[in-house]
Amino acid sequence: MTGPAAPGTQAARGGGGCVAHCLAVAFLSLCATSTALAQSHAEQVNVYARVLSAITFAEQACPGFRANTSQLALIRTKAHISDADDGTIADKMRDNTTSTTSAYSRVGQSAWCEETYRQLGPRGTLAADALVKKP
Question: b/e for 89-102, b at 16 or more Cβ within 10 A?
Fold first, then answer.
């Protein structure tokens, strides 16, 4: 994804590269009702795959981070994603692995996990409660 960084993200502040910006664009596209309706189904599937990629990586890279499966199910429902899309989602998640790991490598574990939790945690700026932190 290209274009200016979302205000208040690490990318806008000169750091973090795609971590904040890509997640911001993806979630804003998926969660904004009017935008979601304007998106093609293929775009919604792509965004959902990016979200899952980030959360799956966070579960492995960030101590105590876990997906909130009920919130992910709600996002999936709002995007009209069905079981028939699962193969495409799996393929896109594999494709997204490189950009996710590159962003993580660039900014480091602490910054990547912090930014991801800020956007996806209980008071997430993009998808509140999609990611939880277990003690």
Answer: beebbeebeebbee
Q: Which residue has the tokens 């930014």?
A: 115
For residue 8, what are its two tokens? 């208040």
132 strand-pairing partners: 66
DSSP 8-state symbol, 7: T
Contact 81, 30 (CB under 8 A): no
Answer whether residue 117 shows pLDDT above 80.
Answer: yes
Beta-carbon contacts of residue 30 (< 8 Å; ≥ 6 apart): 36, 39, 44, 47, 48, 51, 75, 78, 79, 127
User: How many whole angstroms separate alpha carbon 19 and alpha carbon 42?
Assistant: 22
Q: Is the pLDDT reported for residue 71 higher than 70? A: yes
Whole-prediction pTM value?
Answer: 0.70
Exposure on the CB side of residue 46, measured as CA atoms within 13 A: 12
- Report H helices in 32-85: 33-38, 41-61, 69-78
CB 3: neighbour CB atoms within 10 A?
7
Helix (H, G, I), strand (E, B) or coil at 67: strand
